[in-house]
Amino acid sequence: MKILFFLFCLQVAAFSQNGTEIYLLEIQKTSDGFSTINPRNISNRTGYDNQPSFHPKKTLIYFSSQNNGQTDIWSYNYGSKKLTQITNTEDSEYSPTVTPDEKFLTCIVQRKSNGDQDLVKFSLKDPRKTEIILESQKTGKIGYHAWSTQSDLIAFVLGEPNTLQQFDLQTKKGKILGTNIGRSLHYIPSKKSFSFVEKDGENWKIKLLDPKTGQISMYADALAESDQYNAWDKDGILFGSKNDELFYLKEKSKTWKNVSLPADLQKNKISRIAIKDQWMALVINE
């Protein structure tokens, strides 16, 4: 069991097994659903490029990029088509996320010295200025995280089982709200709730968390036989990936429907998804 857990930790933290590319597409509504057009490879290099995240206001996508075993954060400006390296440290940074005040970028930092996974914030004005938010020696290793617009913080904490925890930023104490959860954590402004995926028995369920009350409600069945990567658009429509296909689910619908992908998009396994307005970022295996 310890060996399996160690291997899972490596998979969560390092992601060094598969080369991946990040594609930027535009989402279009159609008479019977959604299609995507104009795919653009924004990473365009051999190796691991993953975990895209949009800046809420600027034309920027942040992502993790690995070179010679070292993973740093880069940004891509889809207005100017410019790539910029953000971090350059001896440790590895993952899951870049802009904080609600838009002053910082929070990342999971895997320590080269001991493998700890802390949640750290980097100043967007000067990324050399950092501050630890959650120290894994005290909280457990942080795998993923998400912020609400009101600075509520939830995190995927590695363990047996993995848990969903909501953290008090003053005390740095976490409250367990779910177990055996998936890797997709999101805040949905239109619902004022976080979403997460949790396994109930043999089936995965999408659930919503009200960060103010702690109340959890069932939203829908998750996309069957998938790796449970998903993202929400501004209208509260949920998108999910499965193998080399993309699907969407409307509220109160029980059926996941296919999203049309452009013929010139690389046809390979799709994993992570990020959405902002009409823009969608997809992570696709090389």
Protein architecture, described:
- By secondary structure, the chain is mainly beta.
- It is built from 2 helices and 24 strands.
- The strands form 6 sheets. A 4-stranded antiparallel beta sheet has the order 2-1-24-23, with no helix packed on it. The protein has a 4-stranded antiparallel beta sheet with strand order 3-4-5-6, with no helix packed on it.
- The longest helix has 13 residues, at 2-14.
- The two termini are 31 Å apart.
- The model is unreliable at 1-16 (pLDDT under 50).
Number of helices: 2
List low-pLDDT spans. 1-16
- CATH 4th-level superfamily: TolB, C-terminal domain
Beta strand count: 24
Assign the CATH architecture: 6 Propeller
Order of helices and strands: HEEEEEEEEEEHEEEEEEEEEEEEEE
Q: Portion of residues in helices?
A: under 10%
Please state roughly what percent of the residues sit in beta strands, choosing from under 5%, 5-15%, 15-25%, 25-35%, 35-45% or over 45%: over 45%
What structural class do the secondary elements suggest?
mainly beta
Report the end-to-end length measured between terminal Cα atoms. Answer: 31 Å
Major sheet details: 4 strands, antiparallel
Q: How many structural units, i.e. domains?
A: 1
CATH class: Mainly Beta
Residue-averaged pLDDT: 93
Strands ordered across the widest β-sheet: 2-1-24-23
Dominant shape: globular
Rg from alpha-carbon coordinates: 18 Å
CATH third-level topology:
Neuraminidase
